[in-house]
Design goal:
Blueprint (H helix, E strand, L loop, with lengths): L1 E7 L3 H12 L13 E7 L6 H6 L5 E5 L5 H11 L4 E4 L4 E3 L3 H11 L5 E10 L2 E3 L28 E3 L1 H6 L10 H12 L3 E12 L13 H11 L6 H24 L3 H14 L9
Parallel strand pairs: 1-2, 1-4, 2-3, 6-9
Antiparallel strand pairs: 4-8, 5-9, 6-7, 6-8
């Protein structure tokens, strides 16, 4: 069985389309070996028609409502409820191409040593297709160094073996945003991550309730994630990469806080630069 976990908050209109893309999956219609799917809609305290939309899809859907606690808590509840051998996440504003699960399931069955695979993406913003920048290029294999600059792993594009979450852990609920970035660092430290070079999901952006639009200075949360990564038993070269990335992001934050005349926060991140790169000299010291 594949457990599809859809965390959602006040996105009833998006949710209907996302769920329809799950139920249109080819893997449900294979004549000789159809897959079983359960869809877990975890409602993070919505005040709209989310419940009615979720239940309108019938018995394949399990609906769970929570007090509003954030996307990480919703995903973690979904993980606890999931019964599947494989785990997939779908953000409620994303869509799957109809062959997405079939392609990934075939890959994981063909390569039993692989723990997770992800796919390329189509990006849409306000109905228009965007071309990703070079920095968003995706990689396959041991990609610990590649996931440090920015979040390369869209959770909507991944298919995991259930064992991943027993070994890596679940989502850190102290992150209101960048929780996928933090999880991706732990994941890439533990396993090779296999890329299927087909655009099998559609990511839709531009709407005002995107979490990334609600927080200024996202690098604040990435620095927190990188400092958490330093608690892992890293190899010396991995530790150097993490510390160098902390310094890069702190430089950006210092400049941003100084521009906003927030001297307290600027000083806090300046201290981190000196901690992780004590011999460095920067123009703003």
């Amino acid at each position: 069985m594949i457990s599809v976990i859809i965390p959602t908050y006040n996105r009833a209109s998006f949710l209907r389309e996302a769920m329809a893309s799950v139920l249109a999956q080819d893997v449900l219609r294979r004549p000789h070996s159809p897959a079983d799917i359960e869809v877990l809609v975890v409602d993070d305290g919505s005040a709209d028609a989310t419940r009615e939309v979720a239940l309108s899809f019938g018995a394949i859907v399990r609906y769970q409502r929570l007090p509003h606690r954030g996307v990480s808590a919703a995903r973690n509840v979904g993980l606890r409820l999931a019964r599947g051998e494989y785990i997939a996440f779908l953000d409620s504003d994303d869509l799957w191409q109809k062959e997405k699960l079939a392609v990934q399931l075939s890959f994981l069955r063909a390569f039993p040593e692989a723990m997770v695979c992800y796919t390329d993406e189509i990006w849409m913003k306000n109905g228009l297709r965007l071309n990703p920048q070079l920095k968003h290029q995706k990689f396959s294999g041991w990609i610990f160094d590649k996931v440090l600059p920015l979040c390369l792993l869209s959770l909507s594009s991944c298919l995991f073996r259930r064992r991943v979450f027993e070994e890596v852990g679940d989502f850190d609920e102290s992150f209101p945003v960048c929780e996928d970035y933090e999880f991706g660092i732990r994941l890439a430290w533990r396993y090779p991550i296999h890329l299927i070079r087909r655009a099998l999901i559609i990511k839709r952006g531009g709407h005002p309730d995107q979490l990334s639009r609600q927080y200024w200075g996202m690098d604040r949360f990435r620095v927190k994630a990188l400092e958490k990564a330093l608690t892992l038993p890293l190899e010396p070269w991995q530790r150097r990469l993490v510390e160098a990335e902390i310094v890069r992001k702190c430089i950006i934050l210092v400049k941003g806080f100084e521009k906003r005349q927030n001297w307290v926060e600027a000083e806090r991140y300046r201290a981190k630069i000196q901690r992780y790169s004590p011999s460095a000299v920067y123009p703003f010291f």
